[in-house]
Design brief:
The complex is a heterodimer of chains A (338) and B (305).
Chain A: H1 2-17, H2 28-42, H3 46-49, H4 53-60, H5 70-82, E1 90-92, H6 102-105, H7 113-119, E2 126-128, E3 131-136, E4 140-145, H8 154-163, E5 169-173, H9 186-189, E6 197-202, E7 217-221, E8 235-239, H10 246-254, E9 260-264, E10 272-278, E11 284-293, H11 316-320, H12 325-337
Parallel strand pairs in A: 4-5, 5-8, 8-9
Antiparallel strand pairs in A: 1-11, 2-3, 3-4, 6-7, 6-11, 10-11
Chain B: H1 2-10, H2 21-46, E1 53-68, E2 76-90, E3 98-112, E4 119-138, E5 141-158, E6 166-186, E7 189-206, H3 214-219, E8 226-229, E9 234-245, E10 251-265, E11 268-285
Antiparallel strand pairs in B: 1-2, 1-11, 2-3, 3-4, 4-5, 5-6, 6-7, 7-8, 7-9, 9-10, 10-11
The chains are: A alpha/beta (338), B mainly beta (305).
């Protein structure tokens, strides 16, 4: 009987001890290893970006010596993360946050808020949260949605669409919209559809292996409920390279609607929903973890191209004369279409 | 009682008429005494025994260590505070041998990462009901063993995480449980010491997939969220050691509680360990109907001993 109890207790201890968690020392080497492992087990775009993460370990671990200061270690870690070429990947310490900026800094900005506010609205426009809106010449409604961090309530959207209801068409400008909450995308899209639509797919990692992914899960958007103000007239969505993350998702959904045209430059991408983690020294790390696909099953991490024939950059010389050539293209497009 | 005796007498066989008077008188006396004793026993059994409720209200304060790899690979440490209500009572169908235990509680933990620059909170609710068979071993020692079922729900919340700030916890379990109670006195102070372990054996618990965002669940993907619990993927244990100091009709309860939860599912490991001091009041109470009052011949069957 005594032996049975001993075996029972031993089995219990053994089973619970299986749930071990890898630990790292709070040293430069330990923190580097922790960072490399967190990314190794959770990052979702190694294959798409052609990154050999084991090779990155070999390359950067040599630099991560225990003699490094915090600032020096930070630079080594940030340099390694930059290899992912991912705008959703950051390392945050108390003295700095790393960003991979080339996804937008290598491209023309293609947006100047002041130019539009001054030369198209004479500073006479409405603002609501991070949204500016007004009516352009030729009776075209204009909405600049600056960030999906801030959501619009259903009542807010009603007010905006009611104000623009007499317009013949609508321009939704999401240039420089770096994203925010995906849940703020749906309320706006719901005003432009009359029946449920396939919005896209979402997937997630099912284990620490680089190939461990779930089957993409389809998600749908429903039209706004009865009584809400809807919009069924032509829409042009303006994009630039800084249209990123949730704004990129907004463009991917809008691009599949029949009366919508995408004008401007290829978006910045950022279709990997980011996860957060941390290192023993207290630094926070954020990285792409859950890939999202558009309704056609395409990954949009590298950006979404404008509608064919609608790729436009801002002309620097036109800026001097008060013209946003992307906005001008959209106005011409809508007036000639109508 | 008389009615029972007369009825019994009327059923005596005819043959006794032929016996001698002395023998008949002796026999009648014997039967009368026998019937009387049996009647008393039956009467006593028919009076419903009093089953006082042993209740305890406990505050818990202690240390907490939490590790949830969905949120962070690091171990967080800090404090916990909780409140527990416990109710035990002998069961109606066999009060001498079976007791029930009901408990419910709430717990809050605040922990920090090793660098002390990030917080993780835990808020949990639990409820449990169980039945135990008990044995009185003598020397004022009673032991009980049985089963219970529990519902635990809670949420870990990391203040620094963006899209994965929370890790929800929910489990319905079937448990092995028991207790050992020992009554003794120190001087003129009666004390009841009780140790009460609970060990979930199986059940169902919730976990998202390895890298699954709650946003995906919000979108409607509820596949693979429920998992059958066994010791390989869900190991938990609750150890409660209390001493009730019978200061008056109400006892002061002091004690120690250890809670361990260790799960591993979908390559997500959660470990929570709590050591806490228990401080509370306890006592045995009887509800008395103002109309019926107390039956003085009713036996009192304690929930604990």
């Amino acid at each position: 009987m005594g032996n049975k109890i001993f075996v029972f207790l031993w089995a219990m201890i053994l089973l619970s001890s299986c749930h071990e968690v890898e630990e790292w020392e709070n040293t430069p080497k330990g923190n580097f290893d922790a960072l490399w492992t967190v990314i190794d087990e959770h990052y979702c775009f190694f294959e798409e970006k052609g990154v050999d993460w084991d090779a990155m370990y070999r390359k950067y671990s040599l630099k991560a010596k225990n003699t490094l200061t915090d600032e020096e270690l930070f630079l080594v870690c940030a340099e390694m993360l930059d290899e992912l070429k991912d705008g959703h990947t950051n390392l945050s310490a108390s003295f700095n946050t790393s960003y991979y900026r080339k996804w937008w800094s290598d491209y023309p900005q293609n947006y100047d808020a002041r130019l539009i506010q001054e030369h198209y609205f004479n500073f006479n426009y409405r603002s609501l949260n991070d949204v500016d809106y007004g009516i352009l010449p030729d009776n075209i409604g204009y909405i600049h949605y600056g960030s999906f961090v801030y959501g619009l309530g259903e009542g807010n959207i009603d007010h905006i669409l009611a104000y623009l209801a007499t317009c013949e068409s609508l321009i939704i400008d999401v240039r420089n919209n770096g994203g925010g909450n995906l849940t703020n995308v749906e309320p706006l899209v719901r005003r432009f559809i009359t029946e449920p639509i396939l919005a896209g797919y979402i997937s997630h990692k099912t284990g620490p292996g680089h190939e461990d992914f779930s089957e993409p899960y389809a998600y749908y958007y429903d039209p706004a409920e009865k009584g809400r103000i809807m919009w069924g007239k032509p829409i042009v969505v303006l994009t630039n390279r800084s249209t990123y993350s949730a704004a990129n998702d907004f463009v991917s959904v809008m691009k599949n609607l029949p009366n919508v045209t995408i004008v401007g430059a290829t978006t910045g991408g950022g279709c990997g929903m980011p996860f957060s983690s941390e290192l023993p020294c207290g630094w926070a790390v954020r990285f792409s973890a859950c890939p999202m696909y558009d309704a056609n099953g395409n990954l949009t991490e590298m950006g979404i191209e404008p509608t064919e024939g609608c790729a436009v950059d801002m002309d620097p010389s036109a800026i001097l004369s008060g013209h946003d050539t992307i906005l001008d293209f959209a106005i011409d497009y809508l007036t000639t279409q109508n | 009682m008389k009615l029972m005796a007369n009825n019994a007498y009327s059923k005596l066989p005819i043959e006794i008429v032929a016996m001698s008077k002395h023998k008949i008188i002796l026999l009648l006396l014997f039967i009368a005494v026998s019937i009387d004793i049996k009647a008393i026993e039956q009467d006593s059994l028919q009076v419903e025994p009093l089953r006082p409720v042993a209740s305890a209200y406990m505050l818990e304060f202690g240390g907490s260590r939490i590790n949830d790899t969905y949120l962070t690979p690091l171990k967080y440490t800090g404090w916990m505070a909780g409140f527990q209500y416990e109710r035990m009572q002998a069961m109606k169908f066999n009060p001498e041998k079976w007791v029930m235990r009901l408990s419910a509680g709430v717990e809050i933990d605040r922990t920090q990462n090793p660098a002390k620059n990030a917080d993780m909170w835990y808020l949990g609710l639990d409820a449990s009901w169980g039945m135990m068979h008990r044995w009185r071993l003598g020397h004022e020692i009673t032991i009980g063993a049985g089963g219970s079922t529990s519902l635990d729900i809670g949420c870990l919340y990391s203040t620094r995480n963006g899209n994965n700030p929370a890790s929800a916890k929910a489990a319905w379990t079937v448990n092995a449980t028991g207790y050992v109670a020992w009554n003794f006195s120190i001087g003129c102070l009666p004390i009841t010491v009780k140790y009460q372990p609970t060990l979930p054996v199986t059940g169902v618990f919730f976990s998202p997939d390895y890298g699954e965002l709650y946003y995906e669940i919000y979108l409607g993907n509820d596949d693979g969220l429920a998992h059958v619990a066994w010791w390989g993927n869900y190991f938990a244990m609750d150890n409660l050691l209390t001493a009730d100091l019978h200061l008056s009709n109400t006892c002061l309860r002091i004690g120690y509680r250890n809670q361990l939860l260790s799960t591993k599912v979908n390559d997500i490991v959660t470990r929570m360990t709590i050591h806490s001091v228990v401080l509370g009041v306890s006592g045995e109470w009887i509800s008395v109907s103002s109309r019926k009052g107390l039956n003085p011949s009713a036996r009192l069957i304690s929930a604990l001993y």
